[in-house]
């Protein structure tokens, strides 16, 4: 049976999000102020054909991951996101699962920090959203590498310059932080699967996990070797969003410094020669 309620809601929410609000160019000859289906698909990381089938009621069982991505792309409130899950025939994530909802306020914050590299992570260090300058600075990740803990242990190729000591300290802090998250969200199956995989695939992770340390990942000063603009030493601050356990990772340079000039250059080059999408991307 066609799920017309889901399709009607998606069309309504799509129509109220302007391309400018989503970080997209408005273009010309638009028949409506809202997002096109192709633009919603791009923001949510799914195919335009699938968006069409959802709106027409021909796709009736979207996964929880797709619903979550649509909620982020449409900038839904908490109540609207809950309603979207129910329209899709899914139970909204419960209090025992890691929150992955990005509030409209956090979206607006990223809009206002367009000239600053910013990414949003959940409490399990899954990258949910990154603005174009963050992607240009740190590179673009896909699939399981969007999880920062997995990437640090299993995909060590990074633009951040590490010493053995700084890498060991970062890994210890990430494991301790992940253990704290696991205690807060014991019902999260994805989190349990992540920990199981990392213990199986990384001896270093397993040793740190078995040590029983609990803590949190803190801010630091990082040196980044960028292939196009050279070396940048930046302050990396991790800010917590009250009530949601989201983390904002923000990179900043000292005003007037050489790093500030290189970051400004990257802001110009980022969406041109570096192949970065011209909108905040889902992670």
TrEMBL record:
Chain positions covered by the region annotation Disordered: 1-30
InterPro entries in the record: Cro/C1-type_HTH, Lambda_DNA-bd_dom_sf, MLTR_LBD
Domain named HTH cro/C1-type: residues: 30-81
GO molecular function, one term: DNA binding
One Pfam entry name: MLTR_LBD
Superkingdom to which the source organism belongs: Bacteria
UniProt cross-references to SMART domains, sorted A to Z: HTH_XRE
Stored Gene3D superfamilies: 3.30.450.180, lambda repressor-like DNA-binding domains
Protein name from the UniProt record: XRE family transcriptional regulator
Source organism of this protein record: Amycolatopsis mediterranei (strain S699) (Nocardia mediterranei)
